[in-house]
Design goal:
Blueprint: E1 6-10, H1 19-25, E2 27-30, E3 38-42, E4 50-52, E5 59-63, H2 88-95
Antiparallel strand pairs: 1-5, 2-3, 3-4, 4-5
Length: about 110
């Protein structure tokens, strides 16, 4: 178990310092299983800063330790939910995780 604590946001809410070309040049793409999830690991240290998850292909899962919150604002509250990767389909249906990559007010 990786114990990767991450948060899921809509894909158009992410901002990558240096731009997408810089990010892609400095990471290695890794696909497995269904190929839906797209993970990019840092070429230097191996960290997984963010990825497109199988559970939310319209969103981005960001490793919480890689988030830089605006110091002038209050950090958002974060609710940690457990997800059973061994029983993926059941956990996906029961967790409501699919809603995490949706904008507030959208269905």
């Amino acid at each position: 178990m990786r114990k990767n604590i991450h948060l899921i946001i809509p894909s158009d809410d992410i901002h990558i310092e240096g731009g997408n070309d810089y990010f892609e040049a400095n990471t290695i793409l890794y696909l497995w299983g269904t190929g839906t999830a797209k993970r990019r690991f840092c070429k230097c240290c191996g960290i997984l800063p963010w990825y497109i998850p199988r559970s939310n292909p319209d969103g981005v899962a960001i490793t919480l330790a890689c988030v830089k919150f605006d110091a002038s604002k209050k950090a958002p509250s974060i609710v940690i939910k457990k997800y059973d990767g061994l029983n993926w389909e059941e956990s996906h249906g029961a967790s409501g995780i699919v809603n995490e990559s949706k904008k507030e007010g959208s269905s």
